[in-house]
Amino acid sequence: KERAHSRVAPIKCRDGTTVMPYACTTREEQLKRLQTEPFDVLVIGGGCVGAGVALDTSMRGLKTALIEQEDFGAGTSGRSTKLIHGGVRYLEAAFKKLDWGSWELVKEALEERGFMLRAAPYMNHPLPIMIPLYQWWQVPYMLLGVKVYDWLAGAARVVPPSHYLHPDGALFQFPMLKAEGLKGAIVYYDGQMNDTRMNLVVALTADQEGAAVANRVALVSLLKGADGRCEGARVRDTLTGEEW
């Protein structure tokens, strides 16, 4: 951390305070650590789950190494819907099937949505979603559902409240909607994220917490002792072909 901080200059804020920005270590430095230092935990795969595990273990005091054979977020984690949502359909299932598990799932997801929007507002933001309605019974049904969705988020609701939109308002927003029989629309909010950048930020935060984080490093094999327990790993730099 001291080496990284030595490469950047402090930033003076408007209130007179000084902030020292964090500059992550270079890939060469990360590879050297992987080659020379022992670790408590090796995380294989630098997608959203792997990066999150590396951050969690690092913050718990475990010496952690994270390797990714391609680039961070290059796989499934970079091909998501970009939505941060609690799951409106799961909430509907919770009521229709009296499924307490779905209720708890939505509640937890909404808490995480709030955390992600607050933690990284520079890359995550609220996203309005509009549902056109063509039956009068849908108006109270859908409005009640999204209001419960808002309520369930509790203090974690950092998005605007859901609301009913008059047919004229809905057509103003989306002129290509079918106007005949339109009874209005429901607008509710979830979050939208930059998934690959969020993935990278989590990996860099793990680096900031002391983890050795390297991309383009593939697992070759696990090394086991006489008792069958894993004692290490052999890896390969996919850019140079070097193994250690």
Automatic annotation (TrEMBL):
Protein family per UniProt: Belongs to the FAD-dependent glycerol-3-phosphate dehydrogenase family.
InterPro entries referenced in this protein's UniProt entry, alphabetically: FAD-dep_OxRdtase, FAD/NAD-bd_sf, G3P_DH_FAD-dep
Origin species: Heterosigma akashiwo
Biological process terms in GO annotation: glycerol-3-phosphate metabolic process
UniProt cross-references to Gene3D superfamilies, sorted A to Z: D-Amino Acid Oxidase, subunit A, domain 2, FAD/NAD(P)-binding domain
EC number: 1.1.5.3
Domain of life: Eukaryota
Cofactor: FAD
GO cellular component assignments: mitochondrion
Keywords assigned: FAD, Flavoprotein, Oxidoreductase
Protein name: Glycerol-3-phosphate dehydrogenase
Molecular functions (GO terms): glycerol-3-phosphate dehydrogenase (quinone) activity
Catalysis: reaction(s): a quinone + sn-glycerol 3-phosphate = dihydroxyacetone phosphate + a quinol
Domain called FAD dependent oxidoreductase: residue spans: 40-236
